[in-house]
Design goal:
Elements (H helix, E strand, L loop, with lengths): L1 H20 L2 H4 L4 H10 L5 H10 L1 H11 L5 H19 L3 H33 L4 H54 L8
Helix pairs in contact: 1-7, 1-8, 3-8, 4-5, 5-6, 5-8, 6-8, 7-8
Length: 194
């Protein structure tokens, strides 16, 4: 039971932390691209502004990579954005593998507890015989509790793993759209409203 309890604590911590960190308002702030466009139009983009944009959000880090290379070609800007984007995506996916692992091993830990409990039941049968049903019932009950505990940790962990993975995919698509918009606006291929 202790490994299952430890898994449940770690899973809960990961779920709460990821739900907090993967909020849309934190990852893809509204109007960040339009703010960058206003700064670009007023020619107020400098290294301190770029640093401030990068520190504001994951999308800001991606846009800052493009802004740093704004005097280069569109391809160079996109390459810089893609490079930083890969790092940002890696950070957004942080701990999701651990959560997936917990979802996978929790039922196995429960099954292991069940097997160990059944071994104890059969050991009790060999020493005390089948005459005392209370000993058998207690051992079987103990064995099945570990399976139930493992499943009760695994099911929510798996659900949140799937949800959070989908959330990361959604945020990545939003960041790609915003970064592409900024590149096209700054390269003069799109109007600010488009």
């Amino acid at each position: 039971m202790w490994p299952i309890i430890a898994c449940s604590v770690v899973a809960m911590a990961i779920i709460i932390e990821r739900l907090w960190m993967l909020r849309t308002s934190r990852v893809v702030p509204d109007d960040l691209v339009s703010q960058v466009w206003q700064l670009h139009r007023r020619q107020e983009i400098n290294s301190s502004r770029i640093k401030s944009i990068a520190e504001g959000s994951p999308l800001g880090r991606i846009l800052a990579a493009g802004l740093t290379n704004r005097f280069h070609s569109k391809e160079v800007m996109k390459e810089a954005i893609e490079e930083v984007g890969r790092q940002v995506v890696h950070e957004l996916e942080r701990y999701l593998n651990t959560l997936g692992t917990i979802a996978s091993i929790s039922p196995l830990l429960g099954l292991l507890g069940t097997v160990i409990g059944m071994i104890k039941v059969f050991a009790a049968i060999t020493t005390a015989g089948v005459g005392n049903p209370a000993v058998l019932a207690g051992g079987i009950s103990e064995a099945l509790i570990t399976t139930a505990a493992g499943l009760s940790v695994a099911i929510p962990s798996l659900m949140f793993h799937r949800y959070l993975s989908g959330r990361v995919d959604f945020l990545v698509i939003r960041m790609e759209e915003e970064a592409l918009k900024m590149v096209e606006v700054m390269q003069g291929e799109r109007s600010k409203g488009g």
